[in-house]
Amino acid sequence: MNRFFLASLLFLAQGPSFAAGEVYGGVGGGFSFLEIDGGVAESDGLLVRQDISGSDFSARAYLGIRYGRFLGLEIGYTDFGTVNDDVPYGASGFLLGRVNASVDTTAVDAFIVGYYPLSQDLSLLARIGVVRWDLDYELSGSASVPPFFVDFPSLKSSDDGTDLAYGLGAEYRATPRVKLRVDLQYYDLDITDDLWTLTASLKYGIPFGR
Fold first, then answer.
1. Residues 36-84: tens digit of each pLDDT
2. pLDDT at residue 2 above 60?
3. Which distant-in-sequence residues (6+ apart) come within 8 Å of 192 by Cβ?
4. Phi and psi for 187 in degrees, rounded to 5?
5. Domains in the chain and their CATH numbers?
6. What is the pLDDT of residue 205?
């Protein structure tokens, strides 16, 4: 991801002069939605389905540079929150109950951002980039279907990787330096079937080259 960001920065810096733009930072929050078709796992003779879906509050902070009117680079950190879901478990063909499955995901990302100005104050955004993610997964709790009373042993795992991400958005200039932004972002992770965020953020920029 570092090579991706540095190569993009060198590309933007080419030319006889550095175009007008801004450096900026922002922070915001919204919602994340996650879906995983995890198949079946076994723990101490118990079988549990790992199909998980749900949503939670998410938060994102980012820094970037906008080069001219149409192009920029951005890096960020996203906490997707913790998604909880109840999943069934059983043994020998019998349903014994349901246990809680929780997934905690965070990511660091780097994007090339394209801007399409609709007016002096309103622009549409599109982005593509790479994301370095970490995911922690846990099954825990106990449940029962009489006459069976079985405690489910805690099962924990973690994974990480680097994949692509895409996004669309819009931003409105409230003042010369303050902008309001809305982003819809999709993360194409190998380990998930669906992961996206909808975020509203406040962005502060410092212009240069004007």
1. 886 655 555 555 666 788 999 999 999 999 998 899 999 999 999 999 9
2. no
3. 34, 35, 36, 135
4. -115, 115
5. 2-13+29-208 (2.40.160.20)
6. 96
